[in-house]
Amino acid sequence: MARPTPLPRWRHDEGPVPDAGMLPVLPALRGLLPGGLRRGTVVAVGGWGLLCLAAAAGASAAGAWCAAVGLPQLGAAAAAEAGLDPGRLLLVPDPGVHWPQVVASLLDGCELVLLRPPGRPSAQVRTRLAAALRRCGGVLVAAGGWEGAQARLFVTRQEWAGIGTGHGRLRARRVQVVADGRGGAARSRMRWLWLPGPDGSVSAADQLTIPAPDMRDTG
Amino acid sequence: MTAGGDLPERVLVVWCPGWPEVGQETGPAGDDAGPDDGAAPDAGQRAPEFGQVVSVVEGFCPRVEVLRPGACAIGVRGPARYFGGEGALAAKVIDAVAGGGVACQVGIADGLFAARLAAGAARSARRGRDARPAPTASPVSTAHSGPATLVAPGRAREFLAPFPVSVLDGPGGADLAALLPRLGIRTLGEFASLAATDVVNRFGVPGVIAHRLARGLDPRPLAPRPPAADLSVSAEFDPPAGQAEPVVFAAKALAQRMHDGLAAAGLACVRVQVQAVWEDGRQLTRLWRHDGLLSALAVAERVRWQLAAWQPGQPHPSPPPSPPVAGKPPAVQIPAPRGAAERTTDGYPGGIALLRLIPDQLVRDRGRQLGLWGDAVVTDRVARAAVRVQAMLGHDAVTRPVPAGGRSPDEQVTLVPYGDGSDRMLPPGGPWPGRIPPPSPATVYPSPLPARIADGSGAAVAVSGRGLVSAPPARMSADGAPWLAVTAWAGPWPVTERWWHPGAARRRARFQLVTEDGAAWLVAVQEGSWLIEARYD
User: Fold this and answer.
1) CATH class assigned to A23-151
2) Which of B88, B219, B249, B490 is the Cys-Cys partner for B84 at CB 3.0 to 4.6 Å?
3) How does pLDDT run across B49-67, given as a tens digit for each residue?
4) pLDDT value, residue B130
5) Which of A88, A105, A157 best probes binding to B when mutated, by most B CB atoms within 10 angstroms?
6) Residues 6 or more apart whose Cβ sits within 8 Å of residue B162
7) Is B369 part of a structural domain of the chain?
8) How many domains does chain B have?
9) Reported ipTM
């Protein structure tokens, strides 16, 4: 719970990490968020979408409890396919006007809170939540931007595969995700991801190859 | 007094005919029904008044079973001996109830079913209806507000014989009442004359129960309500408590008292209602999950959370009293709240004057066996956080997703309030032909958004009854947003669900669309209008 010292180094980045300083992320996101999600910080994602769920999935798969605040539209099936454990997910779809208080209360119990703020959060609210994050050692993933976030993720390009004009279906999406941030994460990084892949999971995509297999499927 | 060992207990039914005005006329059994046909819509509202009748009847016998508002039953054996016979008892009951200003009829017979019909027969005797089958026992007309019908011990079968089978009720009884006349069995006497083995072969358990009823036997003994014990506990604070601490401290002792009272009655409560009343009449009421698991300290903790959730600076935690939950003792009558200007510095205007803990949904305490594995273990930390948020926003505000069965994305998840058991409607994993395959959309609109979808010429795209698209979709406008060109599409995937259920039937044709901004959508057309069910983003 106390503010941990930075982790000396990663020996291997497979599997859940019993580490007090970082929450793990999915393997596909390790290039974008080296080391994972730093406890006590805010990660801002450009907008609500699967990328938010993917950012939370690694921690959830490693056993962390997650809460989603202000997201009545969260697709729990997509969350589960991305790797988020629905059994360790609390939903507060409508937090009302006192959402900062709700988020602070949830941070006491959950290690990761997904939030879509109802409006632009004021500086006072951000300071309060930053204090709560530092106290509890949680991570806040904010959909829709957050001033002062330690890391930011954006989808810059996307391309759907498997669907044609009148045939096929949505099979997978190749996206270009850019991460930047402050401090150690200041250098901007770019990765191509399958978000989602054909089974809903998130994996790294090769930039150069155009989706070669013919995914047309009318059956 | 009972003639044979197999005969049911003698039962007296008090029926106030004025109660179910609507039910009498529109009940499935029509006018032939006894006092137990469909309850009137306002019967529940008049339940408290009927409580006065019940308390009058309790003067004769403390163990009263309330059948429904307007009808109650007692065992006859003891009171009849005391009051000098069944006729005298019936006259005294009618007299006493009439003394409260309520007219009633009384029937005494072997078993509840016959006694209920006897009470109904008493009514028809008074009104002189010819259609009423003549009871075998002559009505004992008294000089009071209603007559009584006494069926002699052992004569219930003969008394019941002329009644139509439509008086049968209870589980499966309505089906049976509809079925038997089509088989040529019109009266209970005809039904009773069938062999019991034939009845069980043809009609199963409901048939056996009905058959026993028709033969004047009782399928179940009288289940009197326990003497009304108020298990709620309360503490008054004089002078009113301006701080939360003394209230929480008192809550611990109060919870211990409530637990002792419950344990003495062998009961557990599913939920506990905590009611805090301020001196100026404001009150804060909240239900907390209990399940017989909370210690006194844990209940006190919930009281603390409840008080903490009411922040003085907040405008919305309600000055008006929260609506009383059904089945609760009536809430304290509260004067109109005064303005917020009188708040004291500590935030509790005038201080807390009363704290009450009311056990809700009493059940027999059977202990609780926790699953060895299988359930996701909710750690204490998470449970505290979730319950705190429930204290702020209400029980339903914090939910957990439970996978469920279904075709569309919104059906594949059921949201269960935190702390409640997951009673999923449909299990996941079944074959759902026509189900939208993965990947699943990250955005599932709780209520679908309206959309417009047009073809190249600007006309709305339609899908024929045979599942043919009028023209390829070319443009889409979501919920009034500007038009976007459709770059790729697939469909239609028609699905007709629950056509057998008029309320839940759904006939849709689904499409997946990709628009020029790169977004992908799951849209559906239903009865000519387009809906956006989900978005892949």
Assistant:
1) alpha beta
2) B88
3) 677 788 888 888 877 777 7
4) 37
5) A105
6) B133, B134, B187, B188, B189
7) no
8) 4
9) 0.84
